[in-house]
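Blinded run. Sample ID left blank on purpose so nobody reads anything into the name before looking at the predicted structure. Input follows.
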Amino acid sequence: MSASTTQPIPTPPEEPAASRPEDLIAEPAVQGDLTAELKQVARPFGKPTLVLAGLLVLALAFAGGAWTHAAFGSSSGSSSARTAPAEGQQQGGGFGGRAGGGRGTVGTVEKVDGSTVTVKTVQGSEVTVSTSDSTTVGVTQPGKLSDLKPGQTVTVQGRTGTDGSVTAQAIVAQPAR
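Blinded prediction complete.
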């Protein structure tokens, strides 16, 4: 048995160069200019996004302006542009006076006689209010002319005639204070 046979020691098969971890790290991850690639990806907002953001800012500015005007704005007419009342008539105003064009009359009910209501304004003058079947009367909830009582504060909306009387479109009783 002096003759011996030598067998070669088996070696593991060689892996392809790209699959070894050392080789993966050694190669560049991006082919070409890395700076240009990063600049292209770094833009977070495109043109459509910027346009929509601008429109949103404009809409919010408009809504804020409308809210501000509603909260602090003046009425549409100035006192200097109003015409003087006819002789024997009182200048219309927001409260206590009367104005044409449906602005209203505010005062207390003096009496209700059929379809006519007499209202005493804050200034002390009496206004005759004529009503019709289409006149609405509100007393916290819809009501009738018979629901109006002397001493009650009401707001009358309607047209002022040449004689100073008001043709009512609506009468609303104010809550007691």
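Unblinding after everyone has recorded impressions. The chain has three helices and eight strands.
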